[in-house]
Amino acid sequence: MTDRIFNFNAGPAVLPLDILKQAQAELLNYRDTGMSILEISHRSKPYEVIHQEAEADMKALLGLGDNYRVLFVQGGGSLQFAMVPMNYLPAGRIADYILTGSWSEKALQEAKLLGQTHVAATTAGEGYRRIPSLQEIKLSDKPAYVHITSNNTIYGTQWREFPNFGDIPLMADMSSDMLSRPFDAKKFALIYAGAQKNLGPAGVTIVIIRKDLLDECPPTIPTMLRYDTYAKNDSMYNTPPCFSVYIVHLVLQWLRKNGGLAAMEKHNQEKAAFIYRQIDQSGGFYRGHAEPDSRSLMNITFRLPNEELEGAFVKEAVQAGLGGLKGYRTVGGIRASVYNAMSKEGCLALAAFMDEFRKKNS
Ligand SMILES: *Cc1c(COP(=O)(O)O)cnc(C)c1O
């Protein structure tokens, strides 16, 4: 394969081509340093600029002020499953989790290792086809925090409207839809997102945290697992994942240059509609996993009449230049991940392929 394909992988996932080209052009000699960004100190001026601009750009995109910090942490979204309760679930308190898929289950599992938990709502019994309504959420008495997963990468569902629990800290795993649309980030005490879905390469996790929470990190847990360590040291207590932060910085600038989150939402709605329309107009040949009002704009999941056809679909799609469409094993079928960097052209190509495949096989 010599040409780039349309890449529908769930993560690591497609990045904007212009950014890859810029990284390639700058790789051997970063801005006249005579060194690669891969080779320079994280304490050097050129890296410091990248790191600080990335924090500032992230806050600007989210409309956050001085009472928030942006931290760059390693260990993926999965380490955050543990860091959140380690820091914010003290003995004698209960943390509430809303279960909307496999990643929220994993987050809960870690919290259970560390303290008391309560499931405030779950749609597990319905195969995680939908997001619970706000009326279905039953909180425990004064929970330490409430944890949600904004977009369910595996099942293909996404919160439309975020809940509001007043003073109770709301914490969210936004690994697979961070910066895909505007939302009121000030509603959240803490947001985390592994970069490799919608923000950049693997290796860095973005944590957005309200500053008052930094005073609550227990001094008894290891230094590298405390959020205040990252905040006090500008995420440079130890060596940060410099190259990953560098790419995230380029992605943030690309987002700002292209109209920010409102423009991105419009782009994502338009893209997803091409594919959902194929599902809805297929007369039952394609069956969407998510209920229509919970559909994700990032991960589109659907089944075909049988597994044989699903296998043929994935195989023939590859031949048509459409990669990464095989669904996750628990849901089966097809998953098209159409993150910010997926072009309209890619989604149109997939829609055309779906149309043709259905006509040929039904
Ligand atoms: C991929 C994913 C994770 C896990 O991320 P890692 O960086 O691999 O630990 C967590 N939450 C969601 C919603 C994800 O999509």
TrEMBL record:
Enzyme class: transferase
UniProt keyword annotations, A-Z: Amino-acid biosynthesis, Aminotransferase, Cytoplasm, Pyridoxal phosphate, Serine biosynthesis, Transferase
Cofactor(s) demanded: pyridoxal 5'-phosphate
Record localization: Cytoplasm
Ranges that cross the membrane: none
One Pfam family matching this protein: Aminotran_5
N6-(pyridoxal phosphate)lysine carried by residues: K197
Binding of pyridoxal 5'-phosphate, residues: G77, S78, W103, T153, D173, Q196, N238, T239
GO BP terms in the entry: L-serine biosynthetic process
Aminotransferase class V domain segment(s): 5-346
GO-annotated cellular components: cytoplasm
Quaternary structure, from the entry: Homodimer.
Family as reported in the entry's similarity comment: Belongs to the class-V pyridoxal-phosphate-dependent aminotransferase family. SerC subfamily.
Functional note: Catalyzes the reversible conversion of 3-phosphohydroxypyruvate to phosphoserine and of 3-hydroxy-2-oxo-4-phosphonooxybutanoate to phosphohydroxythreonine.
Record's protein name: Phosphoserine aminotransferase
Gene: serC
